[in-house]
Amino acid sequence: MNINLTKYIAATFIMSLALASCEDSIDKDNPPVPYVAIGGYENSDDIASGNLVAKLSFENDLADKLSNITGQMPANVSYASGAKGMAYNGSSSEIKYTVGNANNAITGLNNFTIAFWMKSDNTVAPSPPGQGKGAQGIFSIVRPAEFWGGMNVFIENPDSSKPDRIRLKLGLENSRPGVSWKGQSVIANLDGHKGKWVHIVFAYDASTSRCYVYENGEPAKNLDGFAYSPAGGAISGYASWFASDPGGANNPAGAPGYGGFQMIGTNGKVVFGTHQFETVPSQNNGGQEDWATSFAGQLDEFRIYNVALKNTDVIALYKLEKDNR
Questions:
Q1: For the residues of 9-59, what is the DSSP string, one character each?
Q2: Shortest CA distance to 151 belongs to which of 250, 257, 320, 264?
């Protein structure tokens, strides 16, 4: 064999051994660099982990990670690329939804946070009625003897003067004794999000009777749909709810706060993707409404907590999920 070739092979062999030794040393002495923590958390599931009571990621299934929602019965459910992995995929032409069983961790909520990603092309006027037209149901906790569920999340009918505004509504039905204004709500007027993923959080603190609303980690800029809300929309990021008529925005009547949230008449059912009265057959023995429809957009990383998340945790949740963590 050529002497120079022999020397080359030997040198190559020695160098490969040195590199292998070096790499082995690097791996031992320098473990993988961890993610930079956000808000003190490295993963979105670390946030208020002891208070998380439902998490549906829609990774081509309807599984709740906490198993407090089970036995899902899907109707035409499909999936699409989401904000994080896959997502629930609604339709503007086909009725889609799922009905599941929920235990007391869901039906017994008092303080709570609802958090999710959504992408919507908005809704359109319900006349003439049809799939994807009118108020689009997203989530309901079923009350079979009542028109509305105990908790209802949906896109409200459009504002004809603002066709690009998505009017996302949370409605509650509080059956606690002493509450005469049982139905309370807040509408987040979402501008600039049509056809884009947006992270939404509704957080209700029973001790203050305030429902905080966040979009993409920040306090929502324009809220209405609650008692004596400003005509132009509130910019405070929360709605104040009352147990009776406050008589004005500053509560001149001295009405008590909405307080502890208590649902009664629930039957352990929840609906994703439409209203409780829009399923076939309906969950409240009613019928479909011309002004309502099932959800036509996409839904991802749907979470329920039994506590009102702090602002810092809401920001961390948004950033971590956006970072696919």
A1: HHHHHHHHHHHHHHHHHHHHHSPPPPPPPBTTBSSGGGTTGGGEEEEE--S
A2: 264
- Whole-number Å distance between alpha carbons of 73 and 272: 10
Look up residue 225 and give its two tokens: 């749909």
The size of the chain, in residues, is 325
Lowest average pLDDT, out of 62-66, 72-76, 283-287, goes to: 283-287
- Rounded Cα distance between 16 and 245, Å, is 81
Other Cβ atoms within 10 Å of 55 Cβ, number? 19
Q: What is the pLDDT of residues 2-57, one digit of tens each?
A: 555 444 444 444 444 444 444 444 344 555 556 789 989 999 999 999 999 999 99
**Is there a contact between 223 and 190 (Cβ–Cβ < 8 Å)?**
no
Peptide bond into 281 cis (omega under 30): yes
The pair of three-digit structure tokens given for residue 315, joined into one six-digit string: 């920001």
**Longest alpha-carbon distance in the chain:** 104
The single-letter DSSP state of residue 70 is E
Q: What angle do CA 189, 194, 200 make, to 5 degrees?
A: 55
Q: Is 40 left (phi over 0), alpha (psi -120 to 50) or beta?
A: left
